[in-house]
Design goal:
About 80% of the residues lie in helices and about 0% in strands. It has about 325 residues and is mainly alpha-helical. A two-stranded antiparallel ribbon has the order 1-2. The longest helix has about 35 residues. This is Peptide ABC transporter. It is found in: Cell membrane.
């Protein structure tokens, strides 16, 4: 198991290194002068040069890259020139919104998708299977921001059960904070649940054709026990893969939903930093999200080994 983890960690570090080069290079080749965009067209040359010097824009490219990576390694993400605050503080303030939102959406997606996938697989070829998977296909096709707008109209405007947007802060209580995240979580979870349900059904159908499943049925094991105790566990590898990808997407891909619901999360922070050309914020947040994706993938790989010990032996 130690060698297995070491290989995964080494692969994750290589991924982070490549991602840092790509993120830095992409932002460097973007057109426009960050200092000019931040100070406006009427800024004097002296002011522009002073800001460029302060931001390190006059240093050679490699010097800027290694300085930035060195700061990341010690937890120094730099200082935002738009917000006049350390980037790590901005990330901490926004992560307390985005992380609970992603976790809520993932839990809701999983709670919906796995029972639906089991239900459809157990009724393969029947009307219930066709209707269930047809509904899931609609969920895959419809974008989450459309769900978000419908939810706002129904539950916030019409029924007035939840706020239409904004975040009161956890200091005002746990329930008000959770209440403000319910609709965004549902809007994020429903399309992901549709995808996961289809993957779960497909994986289960493949497992249900195996000899050991037929043997369990021939011995008189109840159908529910066959599905939950044998089929589902052996179908979890592709399901875990999608769960890992979904959590990464939910954490890193909430820009639209956070803007629809006016949530002060990481997605909205990245959007605002891009529009204001605050490159140091964009670089820091993007690298943090990349690291989160790498970490989630490593955790998923460990779960692979827990679910199927043969993977540890072959690693």
């Amino acid at each position: 198991m130690t060698a297995f983890l070491a290989k995964r960690l080494a692969g994750g570090l290589v991924t982070l290194l490549v991602a840092s080069v790509v993120v830095f290079a992409v932002l460097e080749i973007l057109p426009g002068d960050p200092a000019q965009l931040m100070l406006g067209m009427n800024a004097t040359d002296a002011t522009l040069n002073a800001l460029r010097e302060q931001m390190g824009l006059n240093d050679p490219l490699l010097v800027r890259y290694f300085s930035w990576v060195g700061g990341l390694l010690i937890g120094d993400f730099g200082r935002s020139f738009t917000y006049s605050s350390p980037v790590i503080e901005l990330i901490g303030e926004r992560a307390v919104v985005s992380l609970p939102l992603a976790i809520m959406a993932l839990l809701l997606s999983t709670a919906i998708a796995i029972p639906v996938g089991l239900f459809a697989a157990a009724r393969r070829g029947k009307a219930a299977d066709t209707i269930t998977m047809g509904t899931a296909q609609i969920g895959v096709a419809i974008p989450n921001f459309w769900f978000a707008l419908i939810l706002i109209y129904v539950f916030a405007v019409w029924l007035r059960l939840v706020p239409a947007g904004g975040f009161p802060g956890w200091g005002n209580g746990i329930w008000p904070g959770i209440k403000s995240l319910i609709m965004p979580a549902v809007a994020l979870a429903l399309p992901q649940a549709a995808i996961l349900a289809r993957i779960t059904r497909s994986a289960l159908l493949e497992v249900l054709g195996e000899d050991y499943i037929r043997t369990a049925r021939a011995k008189g094991m109840p159908r529910r026990a066959v599905l939950w105790r044998h089929a589902l566990r052996n179908a979890m590898i592709p399901v875990l893969t999608i769960l890992g990808l979904q959590f990464a997407f939910l954490l890193a891909g909430t820009i639209i939903i956070e803007n629809v619901f006016y949530l002060p999360g990481l997605g909205r922070l990245v959007f605002q930093a891009i529009t204001q050309r605050d490159l140091i914020v964009v670089e820091g947040v993007v690298m943090l999200l990349v690291a989160s994706v790498v970490l989630v993938n490593i955790v998923v790989d460990v779960f692979y080994a827990v679910v199927d010990p043969r993977l540890r032996a072959n690693a």
